């Protein structure tokens, strides 16, 4: 049985791996089969990660984090976790290959997914005018005309924040009223750089190498029209990736994994969570990395205490039928 398995290879997972490997815990990172490196693999320039004054490409940053984790002895498997059994002292992690890994502690760092509009051009132009994060990308849109898609609090917050950079911000919303709280609405409506485009749906994003506009469909009469702009911020929600732990770990009302105060301790002893999957608010690479650090340190303390108390042995009856790696 291993000491520690880390699920996820974003900034939270790899940072946890760097700390855990340097603490000699020989962590196994399950990095996923297709999304190795996490959300930053979907972006171009990252200008706000400390230590890179010239900026760094998202994929390059994640490759460096992976290298750093490997350098200290983290083992990395490019597989998906398909099932988890977190109850009891031996945590079982089933992989896409069917194999099962076991550990005394698990760090869960599966991130979250921004909801997409679902347009073919959306992915293609990601990092080239299409964004899901105003804090991350607003700075690239100085003196530009942009749109925020959505009608909730986060759409209002993003739109208001983006007026610091953009000359004009359209808020495109399907209905003729907003879901956002009254205070957020009032703030956005009082901002003279923001113009609301009601009863409208984005049905296409224009541009090949960079966004040049959007096609809007009127949700009342079905007519379409084009709007010239250089950026589209999609603010229609974010889903923490918690499916694997439903029924096993407590969640918060926002849908993130519940952790105890500022720690990474979940509702199950020996299971720690880090990064965007526990964070309904900040969701930045550096906050995810910091959260990975906390999880590694918490896991280290947990394992040290187990060691003192006498580590559990896997029970052969409980693992019958599952191929153990
Ligand atoms: C387009 C875009 C641009 C961004 N730009 C910036 C920026 O400039 N600066 C900034 O600070 N932040 C930026 N962010 C936010 C930043 O990417 C996230 O806050 C950060 O990546 C969160 O890290 P994480 O480790 O918690 O999760 P993620 O990076 O989402 O990583 C989660 C990991 O878990 C893995 N995983 C999920 N399910 C499974 C499974 N079943 N089995 C195995 N593995 C699994 C995924 O494959 C992935 O490797 C951006 C986000 C996006 C989407």
Which descriptor suits the 3D outline?
elongated
Helix/strand/pairing category? alpha/beta
Q: Cα-atom Rg, whole angstroms?
A: 22 Å
The helical percent reads: 10-25%
Please give the number of β-strands.
19
**First-last Cα distance:** 9 Å
**Small molecules (ligands, ions, cofactors) in the structure:** flavin-adenine dinucleotide
- Average the pLDDT over all residues and give the rounded result: 93
| Share of β-strand residues | 25-35%
Can you put this structure into words, describing what you see?
With 325 residues, the chain is an alpha/beta fold. It has helices at 11-22, 58-71, 120-124, 134-137, 153-162, 182-189, 285-309; strands at 2-7, 28-30, 45-46, 56-57, 75-77, 81-85, 91-95, 100-108, 112-114, 130-131, 145-149, 168-172, 194-197, 200-206, 213-218, 224-228, 231-234, 238-240, 271-273. The protein is elongated, with a radius of gyration of 22 Å. It starts with a strand and ends in a 16-residue tail after the last helix. The structure holds flavin-adenine dinucleotide. Residues 7-13, 30-32, 35, 38-40, 42-43, 46, 48-49, 80-81, 109-111, 114, 126, 132-133, 136, 241, 244, 275-276, 283-286, 288 line the site of flavin-adenine dinucleotide. Belongs to the class-II pyridine nucleotide-disulfide oxidoreductase family. Homodimer. Its EC number is 1.8.1.9. It is an enzyme of class 1 (oxidoreductase).
Could you provide a short overview of the structure?
With 325 residues, the protein is of the alpha/beta class. The chain has helices at 11-22, 58-71, 120-124, 134-137, 153-162, 182-189, 285-309; strands spanning 2-7, 28-30, 45-46, 56-57, 75-77, 81-85, 91-95, 100-108, 112-114, 130-131, 145-149, 168-172, 194-197, 200-206, 213-218, 224-228, 231-234, 238-240, 271-273.
